[in-house]
Every structure is written in C-alpha cells, then in structure tokens.
Automatic annotation (TrEMBL), chain B:
Catalytic activity: a quinone + NADH + 5 H(+)(in) = a quinol + NAD(+) + 4 H(+)(out)
Gene Ontology CC terms: endomembrane system; plasma membrane
GO MF, one annotated term: quinone binding
Chief subcellular location: membrane
Keywords: Cell membrane, Membrane, NAD, Quinone, Translocase, Transmembrane, Transmembrane helix, Transport
Keyword flag Secreted: no
Pfam families: Proton_antipo_M
Official protein name in the record: NADH-quinone oxidoreductase subunit N
Top EC class, one word: translocase
Function as written in the Swiss-Prot or TrEMBL entry: NDH-1 shuttles electrons from NADH, via FMN and iron-sulfur (Fe-S) centers, to quinones in the respiratory chain. The immediate electron acceptor for the enzyme in this species is believed to be a menaquinone. Couples the redox reaction to proton translocation (for every two electrons transferred, four hydrogen ions are translocated across the cytoplasmic membrane), and thus conserves the redox energy in a proton gradient.
EC identifiers of the protein: 7.1.1.-
Gene Ontology process terms (BP): ATP synthesis coupled electron transport
UniProt source species: Spirilliplanes yamanashiensis
Amino acid sequence: MEETVEYVQATGLLSSVWLLVAIPLASAAVLLLLGRRADKWGHWLGVLAVGSAFVLGLSYFISLAGMENKSVELSLWDFIAVGRFQVDFGLLFDPLSGVFVLLITGVGSLIHLYAVGYMSHDEGRRKFFAYFNLFVAAMLLLVLGNNYVMLYFGWEGVGLASYLLISFWYTKPSAATAGKKAFLMNRVGDAGLAIGIFIMFATLGTTQYVDVFNGVSGLAAGTILVLGLLLLLGAAGKSGQFPLQAWLPDAMEGPTPVSALIHAATMVTAGVYLIARSNPIFSANHTLQTVVVSVGALTLLMGCIIGAAKDDIKRVLAWSTVSQIGYMFLGVGLGGAAYALAIVHLLAHGFFKANMFLGAGSVMHGMKDQVDIRRFGGLSKYMKITWLTFMMGWLAIIGMFPFSGFFSKEPIIVAAFEREGWTAWLFGMAALLGAGLTAFYMTRLFILTFHGPKRWTEDIEHPHESPAIMTIPLILLAIGSVGAGFLLSTSVPDWLEATGGLGAQEEPHEAVLSHGVLTALSLLLTVAGAGLAYLLFRNGTAKQEQPAGVVVTAARRNLYSDTVNEAIFEKPGIFLTRALVYLDNRGIDGAVNGLAAAVGGGSGRLRRLQTGFVRSYATSMLTGALLVVAAFLAIQLGWLA
Amino acid sequence: MEDLNLPPIDYAALSPILILFGVACLGVLVEAFAPRRARHPVQLVLAIGGSVAALVMVVLERNTRVVTIGDAVAIDGPSLFLQGAILLLGIVSLLLIGERSLEAGGPFVAQAALTVGSEKDNRQAQGAPGNTEIYPLAVFALSGMLLFVAANDLLTMFIALEVLSLPLYLLCALARRKRLLSQEAALKYFLLGSYASAFFLFGVALLYGYAGGVNLQQINEAVAASQNSDILLYAGLALLAIGLLFKVAAAPFHVWTPDVYQGAPTPVTAFMAACTKVAGFGALLRVLYVAFEGVQWDYQPVIGTIAVLTMIVGSVLAVTQQDIKRLLAYSSIANAGYLLVGVVAQNREGVSSTLFYLVAYGFTVLAAFGVVSLVRDADGEATHLSRWAGLGRRSPLLAAIFTFLMLAFAGIPLTSGFISKFVVFGAAIDGGQSWLVVAGVVTSMIIAFPYLRVIVMMWLSEPAETTPTVSVPGWMTSAAVFIGVLATLALGVVPSPLLDLTNDASLFVR
C-alpha cells in the first residue's frame, strides 16, 4: 500500500492532450457567438467536435498503452502561485482518465448524433448543441485535471451545463423547478467538495493529486475521515446518492438526450470518479470505506424500491440509475480490487443505460411525448428496432448471462461478500436483494411498454419507428450492452492497475459463500424477479393510479425524501430568509412592492419602494455598535477569549 | 522591515494626491468661468487626464517606501497598490460618468435645486444638458480616497474620510430620473454617514486617551507596552472599526447600502461599489495591521463574526431581491464579508489576497453597473428584474456579457471571482480561520442562486412586451464594460502577474 505515486511529463503525441477539452469548448463558443447564422449547420459542428475528440482520445489511449509509466502529466501554466499556494493548470492522462475520456466522447458522440434527429423540430437546437458541447468540455476537464482545483473547475462546469440543459424546456414550469432543485442539491455537495479542497490546503499545503496521495499517509486518522466525508458529500451530490438523491429523477424534465448523456452515462458518475481517483484517501481509513459502502448499499435499495412504484418511463430509468450508481459506490467503498470492478460497472452502465434512455426517447418520439408506461403496451410490433435494442439494455441491466450487466455487477456482489465478519452478510445480501428487485422493476417497465394489451391514449393511432439517425446510435449502443461487459471485465482491471494507487491488491478475505453459489443465487433471484414481474404485468395494468398499501405509497412518494428535505433544508431556509428580511428594512423587498414598481411609473409610486426609515437604520447601527463594543470589552475582561 | 528615511515632505511620493486635489480645484474654477457648452468636454478631459497623470506618478513611485509630512502619510507597498487600483477603477468610473449618449443630457440632473415635479423640472428632464459639477466632486472623492488609504495617523484618516464622503453624498442626489429616490438616498447616506463618522471620531478620541497620540505607530507601541487602561483601547478600537465597517458596508452597518445603491445615478453607484470599497478596505487593513497588530488575537473573533454575519446577510437577502441594483447592492455586502475573511487572516497572504480581491471585484462590478445603465425604457433605466426577462433574445451580446459577469460574481472557475475567493479563503485557512472559510463557502453557494436566476431569466424566458430596449452604448460605456469584462476574464485565467504584484506590495511600513 505504501507505494509512492509518480507521474511523468507528457511528450510527443500526448503533449497535445489539452485539445480534448479545447475542441468541444471552441465548438460551443462558435455556436453561441455566431447565433442564428449557425442554425443550419450548428448541430453537425457539435457532433463533429465530440466525434473528433473521440478519435483523438482513442489515439492518446493507444499511445498510452505502449508506455512504461502510464501516468502522464501535462502542465499548461502556473495558475495560482502566491506564497504557499501553488496550483497548476495541468492535465493528467492515465488509465483511469483514459477510460473516462473514451466513455464520455464515445457514448457522447452517439448521443449527439441521436440528438440531431430528436431535436430536429426544436427551434433552439443550435443552442442545445452549444450547451451540450460545453458540457462535454467541462466533463473532460473534470476527469483530465491533475489536481483537485482542476477537478472542481470541471465539477462546476458540468453542474452549470446540467442546470442549463434541464431548464432547456423552459415552457414547462416543472422543468424550471427541477433545474432549481438540481442546482440547490448540487450546491450542497459542491460546498462539501470545496471545503474538502481547502482542508487539503490547510493540512497538506497542496491540491496536486501526486502530492496529496503521497502525503495522505502522514495525516491524522480524524483528518482523513473528515476530508473523506466531505469528498463523499460532494460525490453524493453529483451522483444522486443518499441523502442527496432527490434531484436526479426530477432532472428528467430535460430533453431525453440530456437525460441519457448527463443524467445516466457521464455526469452522475463523476462522484464515482472522484472516489476512485481519491482512492489513497479512502483506502487510508476503514470507517470511511464503511460509510461509502453503506451509502451505496442504502441508495441501491432505495432506488430499486422507488423505481418499482413509478409509472413515468424516464423516472423509472432515473431511479434505476440512482440504484446502479449505488452499486458503483458499493464497489469503490469496498476498496482494493473492487475499485476496478466499480469502474467496469460504470462503463458498462454507461452503454446500457444510455441505450435505454435513448430507447425511451424513441418511444416518446413515436407516442407524442407520452411518458406514462400505463398508457403504452404492445409497442413491440410497431417499433421493432427500439424494442430489440431496448431488450438488450433490459437484459444487460438485470444482469442476465451473458449480457454485460452480468459480468460487471456479479463481481461487485461477490466482492461485497468478501468483507470481514457480519458486514459481509449485510452488504452482500443488500447487493443480492438489489439484483432481484432490479430484475422485477425493469421487467415491469419492459413488459408494460412493449408487450401486453394496448392502453394508448385516444389521439394515438399509428406509433411510428424513429428515423435512422436515431436508431443507428441505438443499435450501436445495444451492441455495447451485449458485449461490453465481458470485454471490459477481462481487460479493464489489469489496465487500471497502472493508475496511481488503484487496483492495489489487498489479500481479499475469503468470501462467506463460494463464488459458484453466489452466481447461482444472483441468477436465480434475477429470474425470479423477472418472472414475477412477467406474471403480474403480462396482461397490462390499470390506466390510472390505484390506491395502494403503505409500502407502495411510500415508494411513490420517493420514500418521503422530499418531505424530509423540505423539513431539514427548505423550512429553516425560508424562515431564516424571512427573519433576515424582517430585521433588514422590515421587508421592503417583498415581491408585492417589487411588482408595484414594475407596473407603474411616476415618482409617487416609486417612492413607496423605499420605506426604510433612517431612524430604524440608525437604531440597527446603534444596536450593532453596542454589540461590537460589548464584545470587545467582554474579550478584554476575559469572557470570550 | 524596510529602511525608512524621513524627509520633511516628500513631494514626489505625495504627488498623486496633490495632482488630483489640484485638478479638482481647477474643476471648480472651470465651473465658474468656462462657458456652459464647453464645460462637459473640458471637465471630462481634465478629470481623466488628471487621474492618468496621478496614475503615472504612482507607477513611477512604485518603489518608494516612506513615512512623510510629520508621519501623517505613509507611502508604502499597500498604499501605492491601493492608490493605483483606485485610480484605475476611478478612470473607468469616469468613463461611465462621462457617458452622454444614452439619454438626452446625460444621467445627471441639470439643476439639482429644482423642485421635483414642478414644471421647470419636467422641462429639464426632457434633455437639458446635465450639470458638470459631478466631475470636480468625483475627483475630490478620488483624492480623498488616495489619502485615506495612505493616512498614517487617525486624524489625517478622518479628514480623508470626510473628503471622500461629502462629495459622494452629493453625487448620490444628482440623478436625472427618479429624483425623489435619488435625493432620499443621498439624505439617508448623509445622515447615516455622519453618524458613522461620529463613531469613528469618538474612537479616535478614546485611542488618543490610551496612547497619547493618534499616530498608528504610536498606538502600536502603546499596545506593545500595554501599560494603560485596556478599556480605552478596546472601546476605541471598536468605535474606530465601526466607522470603517460602515464605509465598506459590513453587517450590521450595511443598512444604507441597498437604498443608496438603488437611488444613486448608476454611474455613481458603480463608482461607489468599486472605489469606495477599495478605499475603505485599504484603511481598515492599515489600521488593523499597523496600529493593532499587538491585539490581533483579541479582535479576530469579533471581526470574524462580523464577516460571517455580513456574508449571511448579503447572500440570503440577495435571494429575495427583485431589483437588479438592489441585488448588486446585497452582492456588494456579501463581497465585503469575503473581503473581511481575508482581512482577519492576519498574515501576508491575507493582505495580498484582499488586495487582489478588491481589484478583481472592482472591475467586475464596474462592468455590471455599466450594463445596467444600458437597459432602458421610456422612464430611464429598467432595473426591475422582471423587466429583464427574455433579454437574451433581444440583445444576445449584452445578455452574454452580463451572464459572464454574473458567473464571475458567483465564483465560477475561469473568472476572477473564483480566483479572488480562492486566494482569500486560502489565506484564511493559512491563518487558522477555517470556520470563516466554511461560512464563506456555504454562503457563496447560496448567493450563486440569485445570480443564476438572473441568467435564467435573461435567456430562458420569453421576452414580454414590456421588455425594455437596450440602448446602443457610446464609446465610453462600451470601453468601460469592455475593460471590466476583459479584466474579469484575464484575472480568472492568468491571475499570476497580479498575484505576484499584490504579494510584493503587501508589506506595510511601520
């Protein structure tokens, strides 16, 4: 474990790795600056930018494979250099960032291509592609930075782009609310990350990965714990993990390609990246690892339970994302070799989840934007390609042999059983139970959408298959859903071993159940879950919401997480604001006064805008002054110091 | 510590202050003797020319480190840097003040004495050329600021405070439109400002009683010897700090800010937000770091608490604002809180990061108010936020600029706003003030929300019929906005040169 992390300077082809970020960024700038003039061809520029980034990324990846030390650093310029603060504007291309680059640009290209068709009727398509490119650039910066400040840059950038893209369909008030919610919950996580970065500065004097990782063993256990928990808070915010999970399903208000790229394949996995990248910090403290595993296990079960009760096709998929990322957190929390397993699952998930989201988009495209699975049914006859590709994704996510989910999820379940003592049973059983539940709700989704009797709304006569530009990405992603798991699980763990500190082999504990038994068990549970769902839903379901028992009602309400959030954050926040407004000028800034000013001209009305009296201002200043003087005197008398 | 040589009066070191003071007096003469039509161009050239000359002198004197005229003025790293910053920001503000093409006669009233709403007043509102006394007033204020940040004894500092404040009170009252609002703002500012000055002066008196002098070094020595009543010292320090905290708009002494920022003519608001902030913090730094160095551990918790309160008040109340100028006012309050975090860091990084923050914030806020002055309807500026809905459709360039500035205020990376918060918080971490950093990070997350709301409103709402037009700016406003945006971007991408400069300039002479 006490290996030192070493990075080499980039030379040759790899010294142009900055192009990866620069190309999508430049394309976004062109699209935004040219305005309507770029409306005709703007979307193709967007596709081209991401596509060429993919080609570049692939060639970097290949040249990295031939190198001795696979961690290549490229320092662009001294960003901040004041006193003890040294922050590089630098990039790091190593096996871990390499696979992320391929995922982001590869899946990203396909989704961009799909969006050309999906957004063809939207007049804001050019702007959409500009934000989309901006997102890709920020996401690449996030995974390519060589220190935590760079990571934070990308982190803020993807947050911003995600916010803009969720609110993209601004005519829907729900979209604006969802954007707001995503923004706020992400801010909570961002605050954690930012404070964590400052703690690194305070204790280690640096944020460069290489120095942080080499210095972390010298820190006190308590410091590592706090630092790790703050990073975990940041990761949970971005990845929709407990307790910050509520924003992710609401984020589905955005256009479907956005859900596929940002809220399924890439951005939401940034939290997993953060923890995997920071593995020397997390591996240094066992309590910390247990917390991460618990968050993962809890979230994966929550996601399954809520996902089983939802009727909106995109929300079911969203909760399944929450749950699958729970598996990844479980993996990175287990530490050791399981880091690599989590990354394998992340990559495989990127394929099959993007596939299913785009499939859902294709269904909505043909069904006049209907999202309620109770009003689908029998679509397999009308949308053959969508049906088949979606089927591949479905088989992959439930972990059916030999589809990709089997190869990526199964090892995580086994690894969970390899922990010490009773926690092996706890987390192992959670992971196993999750597999069964996943099979149940995903099968429910699949059957209700594509099979059983038609329960369409009256205005739909002939659902149509989507155009080729949308189905081709679907087919490619479906191929990935079938084959990626096997390929990745055999190659990625070895590949990642070269990443600083990653894949460092700890002697695993003997699993409490043998590997064969576990595989059999999980397959059995999967088949049972899927079978149960088939029996229950093969004849369709009621078209409206039916009264339900306690559990289902709770699940429909997201296990009351919104209610809890409201009680913990929103109510006190509103109260604080009201109290401050009252103290400050007695509420002159109320919306009512503001509206009056908007409507009217005339000095009389405008004057009413300011009702703060000088006397009350002076009183508050005097009160403040008395308090300040009293505080100083109290210090002098030794009460406070 | 650096070598001091004490000539009786070092005119070269004082030349920036003297030049501006002379230019201001000259401006008064121009008002008296030049024909009305010629006044505006003459005054503008005079004011900007004088400021540029003063700036040149600051640059030439950059290596001077002296305490001069009987220890009353200290020209050292921080004062030269701050003077340079004030002059630079002042020149950009003068560009905004000098703009005459946005409405007939310019943004200032022609005759301030006319009764509001009278027939004559209505006639002048139609386009009588605005008064030009604003130039000498602004230059007087600038010269007061230059002296304020260099004052080495408390009486000089008080005089400088009044020299910079009195013209500002007047400037606030001179709006062409919404004159009642403007006059109300000026009166409030004047009354509360005098009130704060009284605190300051009372503090000076107590400190004189404590130290037997008002010179900062004398106080420093008296604190080190600590033979006298500490009650005088702490009460004096508290009252003095209150006077200064009022000027920088720290809670709970911020109450005037929203009303005054909203009521004052927008170029004047920009001037106050950028330059007064620099001057106030410059003086605060000098007083705390030079005179009260010996009791830093005692005042740290108090000023730290004020910083936290200021950040909370500024950021939380910004969320409820409906008027863009008030929003920027609360943002200015919150920024005062972040600056205070740098001030109480109590180390060299604390000084240098505060200096950096002041410059970065000054440019951003100037550009922001420059944009505000462009969004207009028939009644003048349309500052209500609901009127900005859909502005991105009407004038994408302007909305894009404002978006960038809002992102800078929100501290999004690759803008100067991120770097300045980062270095200030870093200095505080270094100084062992982690609790301030936690409060700073949390509040900066809160205040990002109102900024983003403005962005969303501009881009993602349909323009209403009442969405105001955006005036085509004259070259002066364009130049001011351009400079502000460029500085915001440049300081965000390559901050090192300015960081080096602030680092070199961060030692006070004692």
